[in-house]
Description:
Elements: E1 3-6, H1 10-20, H2 26-44, E2 50-56, E3 61-67, E4 72-78, H3 82-89, E5 96-97, E6 99-104, E7 111-117, E8 126-130, E9 133-134, H4 138-149, E10 154-162, H5 164-173, E11 178-184, E12 187-188, E13 194-195, H6 201-206
Parallel strand pairs: 1-11, 4-5, 4-6, 4-8, 8-10, 9-10, 10-11
Antiparallel strand pairs: 2-3, 6-7, 12-13
Helix pairs in contact: 1-2, 2-3
Amino acid sequence: MSKIVVFDHPLIQHKISLLRDCTTGTRDFRILIEEIATLMGYEALRDLPVGMKEIKTPIETTSAPVITGKTIAVVPILRAGLGMVKGILALVPTAKVGHIGMYRDPETHEPHEYYAKLPESIEERTVMLLDPMLATGGSAVAAVDYLKKQGVKSIKFMSIIAAPEGLSKLILAHPDIEVYVGHLDEKLNENKYIVPGLGDAGDRIFGTI
């Protein structure tokens, strides 16, 4: 059964409210996306494997906890997921970064993969799959499908805003993954946009229309 975390932290909720505001410009929107990703990632990464290592402090030699193994791969779903990458790398600077490109057909709203490039030994890593918006769930499901075909066994999906329809579709298709959501919104509208949402995250991150 999926582990689902919907955050209620005041800092995350405050920053999401600023994201929603249509007067928030591109620069501030990018900064907020990164900051929220860092705050969410802090919780999502609390179960990283840890081992003990002997180190020498200025006072004495001691055993101290360190993160072990080939641990993390950060994989944004292009293009909007790129906005969250720096937020996770702020926590784990040595993480490898892959990319999965998806676009949504404007008529059918179905996802289509157009690009994929993953780090080596991806099957040995925990993958942080990033997409600011979980709307219909189609792109997220397709991205997880692809990762599993590459042998990935540990997947943590992170989305800043989700619709109930998309969240349900994702956990029904992949009940074995972890899902972290900044805020669960009301619904999808007739055009499959999240309500109240924040518009098109990719356009607002990159300043496109």
